[in-house]
Predict the structure.
Amino acid sequence: MKRYLPLFCLALLAVVPLVGLNSYLMHILILFVMWSVIGMSWNLLGGYCGQVSFGHAAFFGVGAYTAGILYTKTGLSAWWGLPLSIVAVTLVALVMGFIVLRLRGPYFALATLAIGEVLRVTAENLTNLTNGDVGIMIQERTWVEKIWYYYIILAVAAITFYLVRAVIQSKLGYYFVAIREDQDAAESLGINTTLYKTIALTLSAAITGMAGAFYTNYMGYIDPKVVFALHDISIVAIMVVMVGGVATFWGPVVGSIIMILMAEMIRSVPMLGTAHQTFFGALLIFIIIFLPNGIVGDFKKLRRLVGLGRPS
Amino acid sequence: MLDVKNISMFFGGLAALSNVSFSVVEGEILALIGPNGAGKTTLFNVVNGFYKPSHGDIFFNGTRISNIKTHRICRLGIARTFQVVRPLQRMSVLDNVIASAFMRAADKKRAEEIAMDILQFTGLYDDRNVISKGLPLGKRKRLEIARALATQPTMLLLDESFAGLNPSELNESIDIIRKIKAKGITMMIIEHHMKVIMAISDRIIVLNYGQKIAEGTPLEIGRNPQVIEAYLGEATNA
Amino acid sequence: MTAPQIEVFLQTLIAGFLLGGLYALIGIGMTLIMGVMKIINLAHGELMMVSMYIAYWLFTLFGLDPYLSVFVATPVMFFIGVGLQKFLITPVLKVDSILPENQVILTVGIGMVLSSLAMLFFKSDYRSTPVSYATSAWYLGDYWKGSPIELSLSVPWTVSFVFALAITAGLWFFLTKTDTGKSVRATSQDPQAALMMGVNVDRMRMLTFGLGSALVGAAGCLFIPIYYLYPSLGGQFTLIAFVITIIGGLGSTAGAIIGGIILGVFESMTATYIGMGWAPVGRFAVFVAALIFLPGGVASLARKRKLGK
Ligand SMILES: Nc1ncnc2c1ncn2[C@@H]1O[C@H](COP(=O)(O)OP(=O)(O)OP(=O)(O)O)[C@@H](O)[C@H]1O
Ligand SMILES: [Mg+2]
């Protein structure tokens, strides 16, 4: 049963739009799947390898701008950005990894945050290439209906899910977790920690970059404040995983559902619209204090908290 | 097999090791003893590549290892345990060992086979599914050994693997050490337990304040007045 | 260099120095917290924002001069800091989790709540306190008639700088001369040993978080006469504080002062010679360079020299 759960979910997600959802619900669905992808990629680096990144917006933004710049400068379809973002983001991740992977714990976190911000400011100022704050607009949209965008991101999500699982169950996965648990011990067991951290970072970055390139195609408009956003991208990526469950396969998916639903619910209350960060922040504080391993990771504890199930 | 040549290691103004030289011969058990803070663990950290020595060189089977990274030293065949145990806390005992077995295993299946063998060898087989954080200290010490063995070393550095064990665990561990020796693995052992040292070691090196003050067979060391003054005297008084 | 060029250069240097003094105050707050608690407080800038709103409302409603509001906002911030430590951070120190960075992420959550509450209540308007002396300055030409170049010294900037110096001096006195201050330092150097010496480490932590918040709160009051206030300004100052502590060396108060000055001058130079928009990039360039080339911060240089003999 458990083995077929991913396939079952995938099939379910694939048929859901066929019942005829309106454009708004399709949009929610697309955001949910896209954030699952970003969450899964963050989890690979942060949850499994223990390198907590505060700068995934860097990858998302570079991916998004790869697609956007490709379109404005070469006239190619922005869809080429999907494969090309992998190349561009990998390069960025390698350079970034060289700088930040020598740092540990919170210093790593802060360094990634800083680099994310550097890239945002750079994108704002390199107006020749990026149009700066004006942003990039994709004039010809590929499809009007959202369903095609949905299937594309769903395919990316499915691939990501299976890729992450394959990686985690392989030698790489053992090495990642070993590094998370004790980097020095891992090194003394013959694990080239720098190499494997670089692999985790690059894989994670490339996937998030693809999500960014997808975002450009889907939204048709990007600007630095949106795609390099610290709170709305980097921190939300962390939250998706923290809320759902650190170092679990399903955590990012669950976290993404909750985050997207919460964001939309808050948005629908006119007074609170601007205050969604308050709720996100409060949720984050709540999760860290009461469910530090997320809903999936602390499922037993959660059941106990809400009074279901016997205390074990 | 291992040649340590004029190694010094400074931490700020403190000389944790000064001008230490010795060799380890293939197949032997070399014990490293000395009072607390003598620099024993530091010596392991230098051999193991955690610290770059301030002066001096180390050669392993003729290869200079004092300037290469820890994981490569491990690949060359030197494995170690930690005095303060450092299991991969949230992994099961089996996964801990598999993670290190991967270094020489072609695939996961092979790594699992190696790990199972070693768990049996070290008597941890029944605990293989326990999360290592929850293991009692004696078994965690043993897990350190199992993990090191899983990298299939030719030389093993054991840092106080017997400290804190109860008598029956102690005997089991001594058995394991003998079996490791029978496999032809060379060992360097740091130990405070004089009985254990006398029973299993072929040769002993004594460190005090970062300096090598004596080297010889257990018998010779037992008679060395300098050693008795620096170390054994203190130990027998205690 | 021609005279105007020298003028620009010196003026930039002065501006950077004054800015650096204020930065130092923010950095010291951060470095204290880092030293004692071993955590990075990513709500640091948001705490400053809160204090700036306090000063702003005191000015707008009661006409209280921002420099006097230091004496109100600083104690308030102290208690806010103590409360945060007691009710949010301490509990998290005690839960077991996969990622030890949870504590850092927690402070991110706190920062998010603070800045978005400010947004909710005060909207994203830019606010400032139009003090009478906002644009007044002392001119070199007024004091030295024959001066070949003209330099100016902004009154509010200078007053803020002097205040920052006085607060720093007060803190130094507290940390080195009082028993409580000495306990804080002992906890920072070696919590285990401090515990054995009978220091109440939990209380020291609360005190430190309170002190760090109070310092950044004071900095907020000093910033408001010369800066705009808006709800999301915190993040930027959190980063500044962090960069300063990295340049200065973690937990080093003297390092934070030097770090603050270095960063202030550097940013001022970037803004003058490369462009306003690039100042943040300059900030991060210093940051990354410090991480790579000076992992222990400026403080490590001093230490090395001492031990080199
Ligand atoms: N990383 C380090 N930084 C500074 N000093 C260190 C460091 N590691 C060890 N030392 C110092 O070096 C000296 C030797 O320490 P070491 O751990 O090697 O002793 P040891 O012989 O293993 O003692 P024990 O029997 O207690 O394990 C001690 O004075 C210790 O404080
Ligand atoms: Mg030791």
Notes: Residues 21 and 39 of chain B are 13 Å apart (CA to CA). Chain B touches chain C at residues 12-13, 90 (CB under 8 Å). The mean pLDDT of chain B is 89.
